[in-house]
Amino acid sequence: QVQLVESGGDSVQAGASLRLSCVASGYTDSTICLAWFRQVPGKARDWVAAMQREGDTSHGASVESRFAVSQDAAKNILYLQMDTLKPDDTAMYYCALKTGLCSRRPGEFKDWGQGTQVTVST
Known about the structure:
Blueprint: E1 3-7, E2 11-13, E3 18-25, E4 32-39, E5 46-52, E6 57-59, E7 67-72, E8 77-82, E9 91-99, E10 111-112, E11 116-121
Parallel strand pairs: 2-11
Antiparallel strand pairs: 1-3, 3-8, 4-5, 4-9, 5-6, 7-8, 9-10, 9-11
C-alpha cells in the first residue's frame, strides 16, 4: 500500500523560504511520477511541480522561477524548495503519486498524502 507523508508546511511572512518534504513508501512500480499540488478552500487542486523517478522535472509557470522540485532517491523523499514566497502561495500542499509518465491532471494520480499547510502573510 502506497503511503505519502508530507511535512514542512508553516506560517511565514512574504519573501521567506520553505522546503516541503514527501516521504513515499509502499510502491512497487519502477516508473513513477511524484508531484506537488496545492489547493485553497473552494477552489480546484492546482498542479505545482512534478518529478519522474528517473529525474526529469517540470514546474508550473507561476512558480518556476521560485520553486524547485528535487528528490533523494535513496531515501524515497520528494522535496519542494519554495523561495520568495507570496501570499498567493498560501494553500494546502499535497504530494501525489502515479505510475507511468507525469501528468498535470490531479485525476490521474491515484495516491495522495494528507497535505501540509503553507500560510504566507504580508
